Amino acid sequence: MQIAVLYGTETGNAEMLAEDIGAHLGDHEVTVCNLSDFDPTGFDPAVLYLIVTSTYGEGELPASAQPFGNAMEAAAPDLTGVHFAVFGMGDSAYPETFNYGGKRLEEMMKNAGAVMLGERVTHDASGDDLADDLAFPWAEAVVAIAEPALAA
Amino acid sequence: MPSVAIIGAGPSGCYVAQALCKARADAAITIFDALPVPYGLIRYGVAADHQGTKAVIRQFERLFERQGVRFAGNVRLGADVTLDALRAGFDAVVLATGLGADRRLGIPGEDLAGIHGAGEVTRAWNGYPDAVAPPIGRRVVVLGNGNVAIDLVRILAKGAAEFEGSDITGEPGAGVEEITIVGRSAATVARFDPVMVKELARLAGCRIAVLGAEGEGKGIEALQSLHGHAPEGAAKSLTFRFGLTPLRFLGDTAVKGVEFSDGTVIFADTVLTAIGFEGDAARDVLLADASEEGVLAPGLYATGWFRRGPRGTIPENRADALALATRIAADLPRDGGKPGIDVPGMTGFDGWVRIDAAERAAAPEGRVRAKITTHAGLMALAQNTGETGCK
Ligand SMILES: Cc1cc2nc3c(=O)[nH]c(=O)nc-3n(C[C@H](O)[C@H](O)[C@H](O)COP(=O)(O)OP(=O)(O)OC[C@H]3O[C@@H](n4cnc5c(N)ncnc54)[C@H](O)[C@@H]3O)c2cc1C
Ligand SMILES: Cc1cc2nc3c(=O)[nH]c(=O)nc-3n(C[C@H](O)[C@H](O)[C@H](O)COP(=O)(O)O)c2cc1C
């Protein structure tokens, strides 16, 4: 299966996780790409998109995902037939906007007609879990659901 | 194999190494630091109750654990090794030593007892080796309008129970009754991050008054929303004031208050200044010929707070470091290269691993670690002489 891991980051946590997910799914054809380098008109229904993003400001997207967010609004692409999943990185020290970055991208993708696979999973920088330990089972589960979905 | 020496294991130095590992996997990278422990202000600046921000360390651990970067601790540039020796030994030398000195206000009375810089204070509260925590009285004035000033007031305003999950040593604000944070400029141009301001609304034992925060914008809204915060049984109070330029400190031997240019006097037994950090004359000389990207001379580079001054958070240092790494990657030789050097007395990453484990193991209930706060204690573990110094 073709998989694109897209990440939005400011201090690099999401980038490292995206690369780790990419390596973990090494049996597939995986690319890892910063959202800052991804054009929303380039989504492809043949590819599974795994989106990893952190949160900044007051529940905003991290700097590297902001151009993507703006372009999604400006271009309003029709993402019917596109499948994605979201892994959010945040910090429970910001309780009111915990993991809003991932939430925002989920909403944007859904509003554009894309289908989310599985649940959005969140990582807490103030918690004890390593991001990899949460993200690998998530990625594996999503890939398992995606196999029939993308084949159809 | 080209060799790279990065001086300073703070976020800037670590991000340069991280990017270089990707761009030039053939390079042998050593990160030197004056301390036997890595991570600079992530460990000794970022507030003890912001552990989530410190979590970037997980990225940097990997450099040393898996990516072949060598940590050479206990090596102070200028004391244990010269720049010339490093430049002779390595193809590229990157200065990422940050800015350690508190900027002074330069007004009369600044040397009175009871007046301390934010760097001095936050290092002590973060368990910097051999740093002595300044005594904090009952009435504290914090001068400054940046995020570091907010860190100071938040820590002073918190009680022991509010440090759950932190790695703070003690309770710095135990005896504090009144805190006043004063900005020279109007509230509209205060440099606080609104999120940092809003966080104060969670203080459980401190009333808050915000005086003179008129205007518009996210920052003003955040400030205004704090006004009137009055948790039940609050024993402390925090007041924000703006537009007051300090003129002089009052007192004979110990500070008694601050007089401002409009005649306002605020009485205090402790004054903490949080008005920035600065470098020394040697830095000015080195940076005199710096290019925009941070190239000082062939094979000599600078990044982070050392290059840009004490502005910018971790993300901005990362962007700076990534840009510089691209430049270094292009400059490094493709074949051959200098072999690198060792410095007598240097300690390795294994030393930090032992320190880290000992600190975590010693964490009291409700804290994530108990820092080893003496240089001797850190060195004992770093050199594995068996003595922990963690008493
Ligand atoms: C109190 C405080 C709180 C902060 N809180 C936050 C926050 O919450 N979030 C955020 O994003 N940013 C925060 N910052 C800003 C952040 O810490 C800086 O942006 C960042 O640390 C700068 O990185 P640096 O690597 O350039 O310098 P530093 O982190 O200062 O690292 C410099 C390193 O060089 C070493 N060194 C110094 N001199 C020598 C020498 N002669 N030889 C060898 N080694 C040497 C030092 O030991 C240190 O390890 C805070 C800053 C302060 C002061
Ligand atoms: C200034 C600042 C604001 C933040 N705001 C939020 C937030 O509103 N919600 C949240 O869940 N996490 C927030 N975070 C936490 C980050 O999303 C978290 O540390 C994440 O691991 C960073 O990943 P990155 O390195 O990929 O950017 C914030 C962090 C900082 C430094």
Summarize the structure.
Chain A has 152 residues and is α/β, with parallel strands linked by helices. In chain A, 36% of the residues lie in helices and 22% in strands. Chain A is globular.
Describe this structure in words.
- The complex is a heterodimer of chains A (152) and B (391).
- Chain A has 152 residues and is an alpha/beta fold.
- Chain A has one domain: Rossmann fold.
- Chain A contains four helices and six strands.
- Chain A has helices at residues 13-24, 66-75, 100-111, 131-151, and strands spanning 2-8, 29-34, 47-53, 83-90, 115-116, 121-124.
- In chain A, strands 1, 2, 3, 4, 5 and 6 form a six-stranded parallel β-sheet that branches.
- In chain A, α2 links the parallel β3 and β4 (83-90).
- In chain A, α1 crosses α4 (131-151).
- Chain A is globular, with a radius of gyration of 14 Å.
- The model of chain A has no long low-confidence stretch (mean pLDDT 96).
- Chain B is an alpha/beta fold and 391 residues long.
- Chain B folds into two domains: 3-100 and 279-346, Rossmann fold; 112-275, FAD/NAD(P)-binding domain.
- Chain B is built from 14 helices and 17 strands.
- Chain B has helices at 11-23, 40-44, 51-54, 57-65, 83-89, 118-125, 147-157, 194-199, 218-226, 281-287, 304-308, 314-331, 349-361, 375-382; strands spanning 3-7, 28-32, 70-72, 92-95, 101-102, 115-117, 139-143, 178-182, 206-210, 236-241, 246-250, 257-260, 265-267, 270-273, 277-278, 295-297, 300-302.
- In chain B, the strands form four sheets. Chain B has a six-stranded mixed β-sheet, with helices on both faces. A six-stranded parallel β-sheet of chain B has the order 6-14-7-8-10-9.
- In chain B, α1 (11-23) crosses α12 and α13 (349-361) packs across α14.
- Chain B starts with a strand and ends in a 9-residue tail after the last helix.
- Chains A and B meet through loops of A and α3, α4, α8 and α12 of B.
- Bound molecules: flavin-adenine dinucleotide (FAD) and flavin mononucleotide (FMN).
- Flavin-adenine dinucleotide is lined by residues 7-13, 32-35, 40-41, 45-46, 50, 53, 76-78, 96-98, 122, 148, 151, 304-306, 312-314, 317 of chain B.
